[in-house]
Amino acid sequence: MPRPTKFRRVEFLPKYNYFIPLGKKKCELEEVVLKIEELEAIRLKDIEELKQEECAEKMHVSRQTFQNIIDDARKKVAIALTQGKAIKIAGGNYTTNFCKFKCVNCGKVYEINCEHDKASCPKCGSKNVMCGKKAEFCSKRCKGKNNW
């Protein structure tokens, strides 16, 4: 029995998740599915130009696992570009550092990066906010499921 896949940490979620070759008929269109963590691997290595070890650390995986992820990602992109296939960015085994918070004063629900942002309401500035994952007042990184 294989080991369960660990969640890979990603810091970037794409605004656009579907790319199609221009001039190809929809009925002829085939697609390649690029996982979120595969896109993150490409972003870290090819855009941020980090070393493989740094990329692996950021994604919380081993160097070998990172290499496997980026190899799969690059192959999928190469197939899409050379064979005129659409690229759909979806799915995978990933987690983010974003947590949902709710302001007790004004009721606004918002997401922040728990490791970098302050837990104060962007609407009214109140620090009286409830973390959606712990269902208690907090301003630190959270774990668990959303309780409200």
TrEMBL record:
Signal peptide: none
Annotated InterPro entries: RNA_pol_sigma_r3/r4-like (IPR013324), UPF0251 (IPR002852), WH-like_DNA-bd_sf (IPR036388)
Pfam families the record matches: DUF134 (PF02001)
Family statement drawn from the similarity comment of this UniProt entry: Belongs to the UPF0251 family.
HAMAP family: UPF0251
Protein name: UPF0251 protein D4Z93_10285
Organism (species): Clostridium fermenticellae
Source taxonomy: Bacteria, Bacillati, Bacillota, Clostridia, Eubacteriales
